Amino acid sequence: MNNEYVKIKILPYNREVIVEKDKNLLQTLISAGVNIYASCGGRGTCGKCKIKILFGEYTTEEPSQFISDEEKKQNIVLACKTFPKSDLSIELLNQLDVIEEIQKHSFLQYEFFKENLKEEIEKNFGVSPLIKLCQLDLPKPSIEDNTADVDRIINHISQKEKINVVFDNLKLASNLPDMLRKNAWNVDCLISEKFCVNEENPVYNITYISPKIDKVYAIAVDIGATTVVVALVDILNLKILGVYSTLNQQIVYGSDVITRIIHSEQNNGLKELNQKVVYTINELIDIATKNAEVQLKDVYTAVVSGNTTMTHFFLNLPAKYIRREPYIPVVNKILPIDVSQVGLMMNPQGKVYCLPLVASYVGGDIVSGVVACGTCPASCGIDESDDLCVLLDLGTNGEIVVGNKDFLVSAACSCGPAFEGIGITSGMVATVGAIEDIEIKYTEVKYKVIGDTKPVGICGSGLIDIPAELYKAGIIDRAGKFIKDNKVFKNRIRENDNGELEFVIVEKNFTANNQDIVITESDIENILRSKGAIFHGLYTLIRYLGMNLSDIKKIYVSGGFGSFIDIKKAQVLGLFPDVEQGKFVISGNTSLLGAILFLLSSDARKRIYKVQQKMTYVDLSSLPMYMNEYTSSLFIPHTDLSLFPNITKELRR
Amino acid sequence: MNNEYVKIKILPYNREVIVEKDKNLLQTLISAGVNIYASCGGRGTCGKCKIKILFGEYTTEEPSQFISDEEKKQNIVLACKTFPKSDLSIELLNQLDVIEEIQKHSFLQYEFFKENLKEEIEKNFGVSPLIKLCQLDLPKPSIEDNTADVDRIINHISQKEKINVVFDNLKLASNLPDMLRKNAWNVDCLISEKFCVNEENPVYNITYISPKIDKVYAIAVDIGATTVVVALVDILNLKILGVYSTLNQQIVYGSDVITRIIHSEQNNGLKELNQKVVYTINELIDIATKNAEVQLKDVYTAVVSGNTTMTHFFLNLPAKYIRREPYIPVVNKILPIDVSQVGLMMNPQGKVYCLPLVASYVGGDIVSGVVACGTCPASCGIDESDDLCVLLDLGTNGEIVVGNKDFLVSAACSCGPAFEGIGITSGMVATVGAIEDIEIKYTEVKYKVIGDTKPVGICGSGLIDIPAELYKAGIIDRAGKFIKDNKVFKNRIRENDNGELEFVIVEKNFTANNQDIVITESDIENILRSKGAIFHGLYTLIRYLGMNLSDIKKIYVSGGFGSFIDIKKAQVLGLFPDVEQGKFVISGNTSLLGAILFLLSSDARKRIYKVQQKMTYVDLSSLPMYMNEYTSSLFIPHTDLSLFPNITKELRR
Question: Which of A146, A163, A322 to mutate to test the interface with B (most CBs of B within 10 A)?
Answer without folding.
Answer: A146
